[in-house]
Amino acid sequence: MNQMEKTEKKPNIFLRILDNADAVVAAIIMAAIFIDVVLQVLTRILPVNAFSWTGELGEILLGGLIWIGLSPAVKTNGHIGFDLFVSRLTPRWKKIFGILNLNLFSVCLALLGYLTWGLMQSYIRFKYKMPILGLSMWWVRLPILIGCILGIVRIIIKEYRVITDRERMYERSVSLE
Predict the structure, then answer these.
(1) Phi and psi angles of residue 175, each rounded to the nearest 5 degrees, phi first
(2) 76-93, pLDDT tens digit by residue?
(3) Helix ranges (DSSP H) in 3-136
């Protein structure tokens, strides 16, 4: 065993849970979407009454998948970016632009989270509910808030890794470890 293997630290328990939790939740949501779509199709084809609630449930699940999926997208640099110009810069400038990009992204997520929280409060105040399921709209918009929070946490972790040179920005291979 060489010196590098001895000094290499495993990620702490929080990071290991975060790395696995969003993947597990996304897989569960994908399975639920599959079941929802199958139910919707089958109840429309078969000579039974269609389940009217499958459309609303699909909307909730799809929103949840998108917003929970934000966290792994930040981790793998899978989010939308315009890096054609930045990818041609030196590693130092890539790092500077990368940190700037991460900070702007976190400000956008914080603002979106704040506005979503206000919207959720109005749903509670005015008792908005989904027409068929009768579920409070507060629950329907909760994945947006969770996605914003998880995205900001991922951005903070990524910034730390970029600043400490454990990860490079705008590179094909994401992790140096």
Answers:
(1) -105, 140
(2) 877 766 677 887 889 999
(3) 3-7, 13-45, 53-68, 70-75, 91-126
